[in-house]
Amino acid sequence: MRILRRAFFARPTEVVAKELLGKVVVRTFEGAPSRRARIVEVEAYLGPRDLASHARRGPTPRAAIMFGPPGHLYVYLIYGMYHCMNFVTEPDGEAGAVLIRAAEPLSGSDETDPRALSGPGKLCRALGITRVDKGLDLTSPSSGLFVAEDGSPAPPLARSPRIGVDYAGAWKDRPLRFFVPGHPSVSGNRALRIVTPARAVKQVST
DNA sequence: CAGCGGATGTGCT
DNA sequence: GCACATCCGCTGG
């Protein structure tokens, strides 16, 4: 496994988002086994012009980290009970971040349910990510969270509008969500997953 | 199984 | 005071 360096994140947010699909998130703990998960769904959030992005109001106390150096973790609380984790992108001084929405469990616990990490809130809960982790350096393995590539081929990629940003005017329709089509760990219901024209495979029902 | 609404607290108006 | 980059349990068909 090769840890992603800062140069990986210091690029256009949309490019980073696409290339994060298939990469492995590694969460380490003191005195407990680490947890690994393969990213299968992300969303790109751009700078101040993106009306769906927390950067739209400029570097407020909450979102200032999006304007800082790339390769750091942006975490926020949503609906009072869930956390969302983002990787900061773009060069220092430019805002951008990639929301990690879903991942496939690889190891670290008895967790084998492919839907255990199928959503941004569930993912943070399973990996133990909260606001105290906001700002940690993803390129430093000792900080508790990093991203790696393991040599597996790039997975198939589909795109769609982002989830839950209907307030964002014309930006709500921009196809800035990227996911592995048909993967069982992708979030949302069946209808959401059939965004691609690819023929829907009949679901196995009991 | 699809659809709806409650939980819960922070940030911005 | 309300909106919010969510999730899950309850309802009805």
What features would you describe in this structure?
Helix content is 12%, strand content 28%. With 206 residues, it is of the alpha+beta class. It has one domain: Roll (3-methyladenine DNA Glycosylase, Chain A), CATH 3.10.300. Strands 1, 2, 3, 4, 5, 6, 7, 8 and 9 form a nine-stranded antiparallel beta sheet that branches. It is globular. The C terminus is likely disordered. The chain binds a DNA duplex (13 and 13 nucleotides) through β4, β5 and α3.
Helix-strand layout with pairing:
Elements: E1 2-3, H1 6-9, H2 13-20, E2 24-29, E3 32-45, E4 73-78, E5 82-88, E6 97-107, H3 120-127, E7 145-149, E8 158-160, E9 177-179, H4 190-193
Antiparallel strand pairs: 1-7, 2-3, 2-7, 3-6, 3-9, 4-5, 5-6, 8-9
The chain binds a DNA duplex (13 and 13 nucleotides) through residues 43, 45, 52-54, 57, 60-62, 76-82, 84, 86, 99, 101, 119-122, 162-165, 167-168, 187, 189, 191.
Main beta sheet strand tally, sense and closure: 9 strands, antiparallel
| Tally of contiguous helical segments | 4
Number of domains as seen in the coordinates: 1
Query: What is the helical fraction, as a range of percent?
Result: 10-25%
- Count of extended strands: 9
Shape: globular
CATH class: Alpha Beta
CATH superfamily: Methylpurine-DNA glycosylase (MPG)
Mean pLDDT: 90
